[in-house]
Amino acid sequence: xxxxxxxxxxxxxxxxxxxxxxxxxxxxxxxxxxxxxxxxxxxxxxxxxxxxxxxxxxxxxxxxxxxxxxxxxxxxxxxxxxxxxxxxxxxxxxxxxxxxxxxxxxxxxxxxxxxxxxxxxxxxxxxxxxxxxxxxxxxxxxxxxxxxxxxxxxxxxxxxxxxxxxxxxxxxxxxxxxxxxxxxxxxxxxxxxxxxxxxxxxxxxxxxxxxxxxxxxxxxxxxxxxxxxxxxxxxxxxxxxxxxxxxxxxxxxxxxxxxxxxxxxxxxxxxxxxxxxxxxxxxxxxxxxxxxxxxxxxxxxxxxxxxxxxxxxxxxxxxxxxxxxxxxxxxxxxxxxxxxxxxxxxxxxxxxxxxxxxxxxxxxxxxxxxxxxxxxxxxxxxxxxxxxxxxxxxxxxxxxxxxxxxxxxxxxxxxxxxxxxxxxxxxxxxxxxxxxxxxxxxxxxxxxxxxxxxxxxxxxxxxxxxxxxxxxxxxxxxxxxxxxxxxxxxxxxxxxxxxxxxxxxxxxxxxxxxxxxxxxxxxxxxxxxxxxxxxxxxxxxxxxxxxxxxxxxxxxxxxxxxxxxxxxxxxxxxxxxxxxxxxxxxxxxxxxxxxxxxxxxxxxxxxxxxxxxxxxxxxxxxxxxxxxxxxxxxxxxxxxxxxxxxxxxxxxxxxxxxxxxxxxxxxxxxxxxxxxxxxxxxxxxxxxxxxxxxxxxxxxxxxxxxxxxxxxxxxxxxxxxxxxxxxxxxxxxxxxxxxxxxxxxxxxxxxxxxxxxxxxxxxxxxxxxxxxxxxxxxxxxxxxxxxxxxxxxxxxxxxxxxxxxxxxxxxxxxxxxxxxxxxxxxxxxxxxxxxxxxxxxxxxxxxxxxxxxxxxxxxxxxxxxxxxxxxxxxxxxxxxxxxxxxxxxxxxxxxxxxxxxxxxxxxxxxxxxxxxxxxxxxxxxxxxxxxxxxxxxxxxxxxxxxxxxxxxxxxxxxxxxxxxxxxxxxxxxxxxxxxxxxxxxxxx
Length: 988
Known about the structure:
Number of domains: 6
CATH superfamily of the largest domain: Tandem AAA-ATPase domain
Mean pLDDT: 83
Pfam families: Helicase_C, SNF2-rel_dom
Helix content: 40-55%
Domain Helicase C-terminal: 371-513
Strand content: 15-25%
Radius of gyration: 34 Å
Strand order of the largest sheet: 3-4-2-5-6-1-7
Shape: globular
Domain Helicase ATP-binding: 55-209
Number of strands: 32
Keywords: ATP-binding, Coiled coil, Helicase, Hydrolase, Nucleotide-binding
Low-confidence stretches: 4-11
Distance between the termini: 48 Å
CATH topology of the largest domain: Rossmann fold
Protein name: Helicase-like protein
Oligomer: single chain
């Protein structure tokens, strides 16, 4: 900021105050700015991002597990957090580790919603934002460790398992990467599998001190954010879902065909049991693939039989070499064989093929057609049909198209552009989307509310994933799910038992068993099929499985009971709206050179930059641009857009470090305001390196002179209260207590950071000491010696940590000073300004007293800047948000400030701010509330109450605009524009 001189006159300098506020809110507060992205985020989503930012500012790092329910927008929350940390310069290199099928989905979401360009990592990842599949990472983890990531996000983190003695390679790779990265975020709607040790291992990815139940509980309280659908239902509006299982009875010919398929499968599965190791697994895979494909559709079964027959005949003639290590189901069908049974198998397959060719009807497809006839256009305009296999997908598409339906296909073999085109076609024209599981991950298809599982995958979690494509944030209609079960098949019987058991224990134990994947995973299902193929009763196995999942409820209770409780941060009521950003950018262009831009069909064409901005622009600052989520312009201006950055920098360079200002809010109309920044730097030893942590805190501090306003910290938005300003030659120093509060806050943050680090060290060494006791082959003396050596290392490590924390460097500095005076002080003199201030305060007291007489409870907000209202009146007929204006007859003027106009005519973002205010003041959002403008006329002792005045004023106020969105309306004209809802006399 400028230190003196060369500053342009009003109204231009008020834009500089807005620029300062935007700069501070965007860079120094732990609050997400919704205008930074292209998503219309809900409050609970913003709450998480605010919590993540607060954790970063207070502890120097973000390490969290976001375990919100399916469909609540974890991708949105992760994207917002990444965006904020990158934009503020806190992280430079971000790596996203995701399932293979989600790689391009993540790349697209980050680009389209957050303007973050990421690169898919194939060899090296020389980029600031990389995306890699977990399976690629596990093969190349050493390469990724060398690239110095600041922030790593693990999506679908439940796939990082550490069951049994040996953690999976996925987990090992994640563990190495997480331990080398300061900021780590795990995402999973199902963060545990009912296995406590496995869940504990997952938590160790973000806190290596977790070694037992006690430390696990503490870690859940610190690191796990979990909101269930019912927790946020009022905000999401996600409707209920209803599932129906349709048992399909095959025709006699179909039953004979399925019976012969089962005989073949049992025969081949029996052969597999004669072998061990890879050979048993490979031959067993052939049997199970046949079973799954036959259950999917007779068409898929026939294609599988034909491929198998062709391959076996080629092997018999020596044209194809068998294998015991197939890389896919298709390769297993074509190249895995027991050559001692080759002729017999070929004979069985030919028999199966003959039976299949003789089938005259497809009962399963006919059932689908019947369901479509009943629901399409009545219950839902669009329907999604899921299947595991492309053979079934193509078969269904061909038949449905012949029957006159507009069908769109989606499968895992499509490129990202093809997927986008298919999704768009389905949204715009399609009636039925037929999709494979490989394509289901990452889809957001709330445009449909009816889903049909044409076949059921052997991984029950995939059913939950399918449903999650439509039953999620953004869905507005009840979701209906049809599960097709083929009666008389092995897997149909297993699924029927599982679904029945799921309903039983859901009624007994609650929502933890709402999802089938919580009862059985892929390995569990395989065991049930194995039992059935070996002749055991699968119902007994299902019962044992349910009993083994008893710990699942215990873990879920732990997550719900001990999860992080997200506290509302009062600083986050205030944020930058798109309207304010538009005011700043266009107001600056208009002041510097009105010809530099023009309006073009709802957009703004920036033709060239005024010379004052040209040298500050770093990037493309001209062209067709717009503001806000609804903008359909080629470029959307956000705080980080090169043009916005140039405008903000220009104002910060011009704004004096100390100003004298007129304020029309009586509470703030006589006093000093300072913006104080504090930083703390501490270098903490971590392993063989020093990890530098920088903590910061910015606060606005107000000290009144003669008003009744309380002294102390106030929202940063108090910066933009002035109506008129000029540079001040004086620059009063902030009181020591103000600097002391900022310093004390930083000392508290350093202490908390260091204590957490010390706790982690102690827990790790405690675990190592316990491990010594369990070592075999050591004498007691050897154990004691190793323990002594370990304790010495512990003491040295803790001493180094404490020394580093004791040497933390804490500094404070005053960024900005404002001397506030009453309205009229600069132009009309001290006495006139004081009279106006007293007049305003008197009118407010009169208005509040009248509402009290009506039985209203008053919540005075005059000491809180940027609410846009003077008080809240909780009355018998609802909640009134009241702004008071005081006049002395028709020659007076009504002054409406930008924040007041925003409250009167609440846009979506301002409605969110209003809702936040009501919630933070403990008034339920269910209360009916209206905005009121009260005009107190001291000349005739009347109060006029205008309910929702924006409706009448919006079309007229432009001609009264002074600057930004400030309006000054002569009172005699104001009374012609709007009729009071109520007019009351008051006692003088």
